[in-house]
Amino acid sequence: MAGGVAAVVVAALLPSPAYAHGGDGHAERMHTEYAAGTTVPLVTSPNMHLVSSNPGSAGISGCFMKSAPLFVVSNLDSVKVYDVGDPARPTLAGVLPSLQFENEAMSCGERRTGSGTSRFVLIGVDLYQASPDDLDHANLRPLDGYEMVLVDVTDPAAPRIRSRAASTTSTHTVTCVADTDCRYVYSAGSGTSFSVFDLTDLDHPVEVDSDPAVPGVQPFESPTAGHKWNFDGAGYGTHTGWGGSGIFDVSDPLAPRLVTTTGAAGRGEDPAYPGWNDFIHHNSFRPNAAAFVPDAEPSLANGNVLLVTEEDYEQTDCSLAGSFQTWWVRRLDGTPDAIVPLDKVELSDLGTFPVPQYAFCSSHWFDFHPSGIVTAGFYGGGTQLIDVRDPRHLSSYGHATWGASEVWDSYWAPVYNRKGVATGRSTNLAYSVDLVRGLDVYGVDLPAGDTATAGPVLPGTTRDPVGWRG
């Protein structure tokens, strides 16, 4: 899009960007209430406490870097980089002014180069994206096509748009196959297809053609296309969408192979399992995937439990509005429909939300802690902690809610070593990205005996904030 037209687009977008899925001004009204001081005070379970608040952002999504203590947040009007050397007190390090919607799954990527480590995040252009950093390439759909934008955050104080790549399928979300060596990226996809991007040249990423014999760029096929890829580190990726969840062998990222799916139940077509997909399988995670044991009893230790959120954001009845689920992955040998339901909980089942009707309360993005506790955003239902240690019997572990609030995502802060490198362990701090409140950090009393966490990380904890730079 030409620079002059782009400037007009930016000016047009600034007064009233689409704040939520429906773009009906919902979040704008909530912002007004919050600024007016009418928000209901924090309500938490005894095992959760607010450690710090970072207002001033309309937060949508975020991600932690692995080779540096950085948390990057995608907002409606910017990309913000936080220094989390002290994870209890994130400090704003840099801002890229950038209007984008939704980019609801910020993906962090890293690559070793001859000059050091390049760190970047990926923006999936859904409805629009425009930044004064790159006005000649503003994007306003449907006038412009789907696109992936690569934002370089190697210098956290000066994030910049580095490159772009056009896409033949929806870039509602875009995800690195391997975030610590991000050479290939998968898109959310459209219908029954998705795109693969080659990031060999970070300055010139391109969409991969799945069938060069056919004219034009051909996408890849998936029966569960439409929303999010999650990769487990064991050579598999799970694709969630309108058709449920499908697990692919991605050991060769340029030749993904479907292994199995959630079948009729995942499509919402099995009368024996009503409510398991009323709209979309949203995102997923398979803990301990490398320990997978076929046909074993479902357990986190066996690597055969798939965690899924099922979003139904237009449903205002909190007993139906979108559940958190567990599925039993019985086999990964090509057996069709080998992922079967175990348990699911709606927000009302958790018993932690005071308004069961006429609320915005679907499950949304979540993160798994090795202790067996999930932290999940439930929009107006706040931050919910779910105990998944017994995957057949999910239960509430804790909660934090506000009156004027809309939690889209919640993540466990990683443990970084003295050099600023993530250790693979998790702290007991949950970062909740809130469209209304910005970024909240909660301390959580996790189950006793957990060896995967660093133990309590309290306000005032110090880690070398500059040891990783250079």
Give an overview in words.
This is LVIVD repeat-containing protein. Residues 1-20 form the signal peptide. Keywords: Signal. InterPro entries: WD40_repeat_dom_sf. 6% of the residues lie in helices and 41% in strands. The chain is mainly beta and 470 residues long. It has a single domain (3-15, 32-444), classed as YVTN repeat-like/Quinoprotein amine dehydrogenase (Methylamine Dehydrogenase, Chain H), CATH 2.130.10. Strands 7, 8, 9, 10, 11 and 12 form a six-stranded antiparallel beta sheet that branches. It is globular. Residues 1-20 and 451-470 have low confidence and may be disordered.
Entry summary:
It comes from Nocardioides mesophilus. The protein is 6% helix and 41% strand. The protein is mainly beta and 470 residues long.
- CATH class label: Mainly Beta
Helical proportion, percent range: under 10%
> Based on helices, strands and strand pairing, what is the structural class?
mainly beta
- CATH domain fold name: Methylamine Dehydrogenase, Chain H
Q: Can you tell me the residue ranges where pLDDT is under 50 for at least 5 consecutive residues?
A: 1-20, 451-470
* CATH homologous superfamily grouping: YVTN repeat-like/Quinoprotein amine dehydrogenase
Q: What Rg do the Cα atoms give?
A: 21 Å
Largest sheet: 6 strands, antiparallel
Question: Structurally, how many domains make up the residues?
Answer: 1
